[in-house]
Write a structure and sequence with these properties.
The complex is a heterodimer of chains A (473) and B (228). Chain A contains twelve helices and 29 strands. Chain A is an alpha/beta fold and 473 residues long. Chain A folds into two domains: 222 residues, Glutaconate Coenzyme A-transferase (3-Layer(aba) Sandwich), CATH 3.40.1080.10; 230 residues, Glutaconate Coenzyme A-transferase. In chain A, the strands form five sheets. In chain A, strands 1, 2, 3, 4, 5, 6, 9, 11, 12, 13, 14 and 15 form a twelve-stranded mixed β-sheet that branches. Chain A is elongated, with a radius of gyration of 26 Å. Chain B is an alpha/beta fold. The chains are: A alpha/beta (473), B alpha/beta (228). The interface between A and B is large, with 64 and 64 residues.
């Protein structure tokens, strides 16, 4: 048989799948070597469960003097200019919430149906260490399995039968071995590429599963050209240009807490000007700053959700604080609700934050004690766990999220200022399109990676609040 | 009057750990391990412990040999381990031997599920439906349900008596920041334990840390010991 590919060539083949702007989670073993291939300044973010988002190997890193960080294999790494430090819970939420474009793992075996076995137990029956494999297998939007085509005893690692117990079911999309590249399509394997000198029959002879003959069998010759393409820009010239696809009937998350501070006022005005109708708004209040007048200059009105309600754009609110604290000064939403023009789903504040976090973190539902035995619990499943009453609450997601940041870098990494952090960190990951209005956009690498609260992977568009813009009108 | 959180020695900070306690041990591949606290726990000698941790620490990683989970097992202090990687993949050593001999119970939990169960414990959540284990060996014995997003499995919260964490800087009220990979499990573990003991590289006065930068607020940190 012709020679097999070495590990770095396999890693190069895996790296050729990466596209600009993608987040790529690497497991240990062969996948960790992909970091050796990705060049400095490449437009992708590598994610390590060691807490590094946007890491590079020190040799091709840009900021080797940064925080002490390790890759998935425990080896010291540096952050790129796009990088930030995350905890393990963040890492898990990124995967489970569907925010990782590609995950790459090294399983022991893969079945024709795309199931994987993370660890063989030949040496120690019954005891094994799934570590991160199960999370990576379940979490990557696209899963690449890298492994030797055969085991040391020459038995195939790619097999027909499914595993009685598995570490991932139907999750593998692409298999890269030391002799071939295969795709899992409709529960069957298709041979896509072979190592130089290898034939279709050669590969079949070492494969324990049927391999569909390729229409056009290529030699493995990975190109990294896509890593030379700049990632799509996120900075938009103004509010209106950032919301041109915000459609009638959309669900929109809006940040804010009580008073007028910490809201994306310019984006709110842009949304009013756009006139989009039938909106469902998810927010803490549905506009009380306008009537409470915390520090509002005389003769002015605070800009808040009320401007959308007044304009007849809101069909429904999912909110904590939908009414005015003063019965004599009802909010715009309150009046519309009394007239039967809008729907309301009332959610306790902590439950709102937790439902938003669940939406972004891939938690489908959770039991909370908040509201158990009250009106809030009506119509919801209740359950006693360890002698305590809980109710089941569902995750919240949205089409768009409009939030206020303090500073962003050009890649969308965000820091907040004071109370304007409020719901933002849990809203940004839970919307399909997250748009952040900031005071200032700085260059990549200018924010302290330990201080970044919302990593750029959760931010799609940035708008700088216009100079001299007033949150009052 | 706020009770002081500073302890003069690691031994004093862990002296009350009772036999049968559940202890969270932060760390990732040797980063962010509260080495002095682990050494002190070896000296204090509490037994019948349940340890929840990510890995090792493997002694071959880092600046030199670290007091490890394995040392505590060798010392006869441990009855159960809950971990995604209970022993070094290179070879099980004492942990594997004790498990084979039936002296040690091991529960293996994928790390994303384990960290979320700890977060649920710390955040007062009664249980979370996660898609991760669906169809895998980790679904066994758990409740599965269908949601609009797909199938998910009920994972129950985990809490502990103590957490032993390593922080870069703590102020005397316990507000803490981390350095790089040392953050790992610590913020979640600090929330999930009744008593969190932080081994701090540096201890400063209240007000010296940037309040926007604090990762673990002092309400989650009960005791502070200097790392050296």
């Amino acid at each position: 048989m012709p020679p097999r590919l070495d590990e770095l060539t396999m890693a190069r083949r895996a790296a050729s799948e990466l596209q600009p702007g993608q987040v790529v989670a690497l497991g240990s073993g062969l996948p960790a070597r992909v970091a050796e291939i990705v060049p400095s300044g490449a437009p992708v973010q590598l994610l390590s469960d060691g807490g590094a988002l946007g890491y590079k190997l020190p040799d091709n890193g840009e900021g080797a003097s940064g925080p002490s960080l390790c890759g998935p294999n425990g080896v010291s790494v540096a952050l790129g200019k796009d990088g930030s430090v995350v905890g393990t819970a963040d890492w898990a939420a990124m995967l489970r919430g569907g925010h990782v474009d590609i995950a790459i793992v090294q399983p022991a075996r893969v079945s024709a149906a795309g199931d994987l076995l993370g660890w063989t137990t030949a040496a120690t029956p019954g005891l094994f260490a799934p570590g991160r494999t199960v999370d990576l297998a379940a979490g990557g939007r696209k899963l690449i399995a890298m492994l030797p085509h055969t085991s040391s005893d020459n038995s195939p690692n790619i097999v027909t039968e499914s595993f009685p117990v598995a570490d991932g079911r139907g999750c593998v999309d692409i298999i890269i071995t030391d002799i071939a590249v295969m795709r899992v399509e409709d529960g069957a394997l298709v041979l896509a590429e072979v190592a130089p000198g290898w034939s279709y029959d050669d590969v079949v002879s070492l494969t324990g599963a049927p391999l569909a003959p390729p229409g056009d069998l290529k030699e493995i010759a990975p190109s990294l050209e896509s890593l030379n393409i700049e990632r799509p820009g996120k900075v938009f010239p103004d509010g209106p240009s950032a919301i041109t696809d915000l459609h009638d009937g959309a669900t929109v998350m809006i940040d804010g807490f009580g008073g007028p501070g910490g809201m994306a006022h310019h984006l709110l005005v842009s949304l009013r000007d756009r006139g989009t109708r039938g909106l469902t708004i998810i927010s803490n209040t549905i506009g009380i700053a306008r009537i409470v007048n915390f520090g509002t200059p005389a003769g002015k009105l605070a800009i808040d959700h009320s401007i959308l309600v007044e304009n007849g754009q809101v069909a429904k609110a999912i909110a904590t604080y939908p009414v005015s604290p003063s019965a004599s000064r009802p909010s715009t939403f309150e009046l519309a609700y009394r007239r039967g023009e809008v729907e309301l789903e009332l959610v306790p504040q902590g439950t709102l934050a937790e439902r938003l976090r669940a939406g972004g973190a891939g938690i489908y539902a959770f039991y909370t004690p908040t509201g158990a035995g009250t009106l809030i619990g009506e119509g919801k499943e209740s359950r006693v766990i360890d002698g305590k009453d809980y109710i089941l609450e569902q995750a919240l997601t949205a089409d768009f999220c409009l939030i206020r940041g303090h500073k962003a870098d050009t890649l969308g990494n965000i820091v907040y200022k004071g109370t304007s952090r409020n719901f933002n960190a849990v809203m940004a990951p839970s919307a399909r399109v997250t748009i952040v209005e900031v005071d200032e956009v700085v260059g990549a690498g200018e924010l302290d990676p330990e201080l970044i609260v919302t990593p750029g992977m959760y931010v799609d568009r940035l708008v700088v609040r216009p100079e001299g813009f007033s949150p009052y009108e | 009057m706020l009770q002081g959180k500073l302890y003069g020695s690691p031994q004093a900070a862990v002296a009350d750990i009772q036999d049968g306690s559940t202890i969270l041990v932060a760390g990732f591949a040797g980063y962010g391990v509260a080495e002095r606290l682990l050494s002190a726990l070896l000296e204090v000698g509490s037994k019948d412990l349940t340890l929840i941790y990510r890995d090792g620490p493997y002694s071959e990683i880092g600046s030199g040999p670290l007091p490890s989970i394995e040392n505590l097992v060798s010392n006869g202090q441990v009855s159960k381990l809950i971990s995604p990687i209970p022993y070094s993949p290179g070879g099980g050593g004492t942990i594997e031997e004790c498990w084979q001999a039936g002296q040690l119970e091991i529960e293996i939990v994928p790390q994303g599920i384990l960290v979320e169960r700890l977060r649920a414990g710390g955040a007062g959540i009664g249980g979370v439906f996660l898609p991760t284990a669906v169809g895998t060996r980790f679904e066994s014995g758990r409740e599965r349900r269908t949601f609009p997003q797909g199938e998910a499995v009920l994972e129950l919260p985990l809490k502990a008596d103590y957490a032993l964490i390593k922080v870069a800087v703590a102020d005397t009220l316990g507000n803490s920041i981390y350095d790089g990979s040392s953050r790992n499990w610590a913020p979640v573990m600090a929330m999930a334990a009744r008593i969190t003991v932080a081994e701090a590289e540096r201890i400063v006065e209240p007000g010296e840390l940037d309040p926007e930068a604090i990762i673990s607020p002092g309400i989650f940190v009960n005791r502070i010991v200097a790392a050296a």
